[in-house]
Specification:
This protein is α/β, with parallel strands linked by helices. It has a single domain, classed as Rossmann fold, CATH 3.40.50.150. It has 8 helices and 7 strands. A 7-stranded mixed beta sheet has the order 3-2-1-4-5-7-6, sandwiched between helices. α3 links the parallel β2 and β3. The longest helix is centred in the middle third of the chain and has 11 residues.
């Protein structure tokens, strides 16, 4: 499990119903199932990851997130989680609305394009390549990069209430400076939010 997923697990109440979008190999759901007694599903598009989920005992559905979450009824889950996937979707704003249609709360993580290393590379005329943005512009799945400020502006325009925010570096640590200037200093952003 990635370190940021360990941080997310702390936000999940025992016995909750969880939907994990872009669940990868299912490690987060498997952990939540054993440690927190959650029930739920993962949604994944990659066939190899689906096999890994099934091997780990994770309920998984093969689906493209850009098609929405129409297979799920309103308020079907307590939490809808999406880690390191928001920037790879075609319609992130629509997906956030869908997350909060089917879930009471949502949790997302994404690489912060406003981090000073990204800004410096853009100033030199190049698209950023960092630990959390490891691919070059022509072979990345990322199509909608955003900054901490961009995400918070989207939440405000959609009428979403941010409940918690974590600003982290590439080693998944935080500092007082990162909490004070997350848009400049955070490499990874974690948010828990809900409808107002």
């Amino acid at each position: 499990m990635r370190e940021e997923q360990t941080l997310i697990a702390r936000w999940i109440r025992n016995g909750s119903r969880v939907l994990d979008l872009g669940c990868g190999n299912g490690a987060l759901l498997a952990h939540l199932k054993s440690a927190r007694g959650v029930s739920g599903y993962g949604i994944e598009i990659d066939s190899e990851n689906i096999v890994r989920c099934l091997e780990a005992g994770v309920n998984v559905i093969q689906s493209d997130l850009d098609r929405g979450l129409s297979d799920f009824d309103d308020d079907s889950f307590d939490y809808v989680i999406m880690t390191q996937t928001l920037q790879a979707t075609r319609y992130p704003d629509r997906l956030l609305r869908e997350m909060l249609r089917v879930g009471r709360e949502a949790i997302v993580t994404f690489p912060n394009f406003g981090h000073w290393k990204c800004r410096l590379q853009v100033l030199t005329g190049r698209m950023p390549v960092t630990r959390h943005l490891p691919n070059t512009w022509y072979n990345t799945a990322n199509i909608h990069m955003c900054t901490v400020r961009d995400f918070e502006a989207l939440c405000a325009s959609e009428g979403l209430e941010i409940l918690e925010r974590e600003a982290l570096d590439s080693a998944h640590r935080t500092t007082a400076a990162m909490r004070l200037l997350p848009n400049l200093l955070a490499e990874i952003a974690l948010y828990r939010f809900r409808r107002r």
